[in-house]
Amino acid sequence: MEVKRNSMLYFFVGMTLILFMTYLALEWKTYHKNNVWEIGQLTVQESLDEDATILKIKLPDPPQPKIQTPPKIVVAEDDDKVEETFIESNDIDQDTKIAEVESIEVAEDDIPDEIPFILIENAPIFPGCENEKDEAEKRLCFQEQMLKHIRKNFRYPEIAQELGLEGRVSVVFTVQKDGSIGDIRLRGPHESLEKEAARIISKLPALTPGKQRGTPVKVPYSIPITFKLNK
After folding, report:
1. Cβ–Cβ under 8 Å, residues 227 and 166
2. Does the keyword Zinc-finger apply (predicted)?
């Protein structure tokens, strides 16, 4: 009875021993000494170069050249009515005829029809100034004679005296190609003063016309006439 009763205990003890021995058998390790793998004999490469990855890319095929169709050549039939035009050369050679001197027309000088008094080569000449030596003296004589003419023919308008009108009238006239006076233009403070200035200029004598390169031209001339009452 005692043996049967303790059989289960003996079974578990035996199983425990068997499992322990199996565990020791599995965990048992054996080390072999080998000097080849000692750390002191290992060589480590200082610089490590990574090999570049080689990629193979397939490029597309080049486009095929376009083959152009050659133009079609059509041969036209001969035209009997075609006439060739011959162009003569205009180059001068030993056979070219030279124009005669008498047939050549000389263009006239391009002289303006009107030139201002200060720019004219030969200014108009006032009667009595013909004997002056040079052009400068003739111009000075012209201006002096103009002032004498104005003082000699000056007359103050009565209506301007009654109204007490004073002022300066700007006068511009043109010595024509024949020496006469024309194209009189006036601007002043009152009509009565302008009329008196026009009357004075209209009494100018005939002048010698101005000339440009020997050709008579029109010459504008300007002068102010001042009206002032004695007070």
Report:
1. yes
2. no
Please name the residues in contact with 48: beta carbons below 8 A apart, sequence gap of 6 or more: none
Distance (Å, whole) CA 115 – CA 204: 20
User: Does the domain at residues 135-227 carry the CATH identifier 3.40.50.970?
Assistant: no
> In this predicted model, what pLDDT tens digit does every residue of 80-119 receive, in sequence order?
555 555 555 566 666 666 656 555 555 556 788 899 999 9
Handedness of CA 87, 92, 93, 95 (dihedral sign): positive
- Among 207, 149, 152, residue whose Cα is nearest residue 181: 207
Distance CA 47, CA 67 (A): 58
CB 150 within 8 A of CB 200: yes
pTM of the model: 0.52
DSSP secondary structure letters along 18-69: HHHHHHHHHH-------GGG-GGG----S--PPPPPP----PPPPPPPP-PP
Among 204, 208, 165, 205, CA closest to 188: 165
* Distance between CA atoms of residues 170 and 157, nearest Å: 17
Q: Which residues of the chain have pLDDT under 70?
A: 1-6, 28-61, 65-109, 231
Position 113, amino acid = D
Q: Which amino acid is at 157?
A: P
Reported as half-sphere exposure (CB side, CA atoms, 13 A), residue 70 has a value of: 3
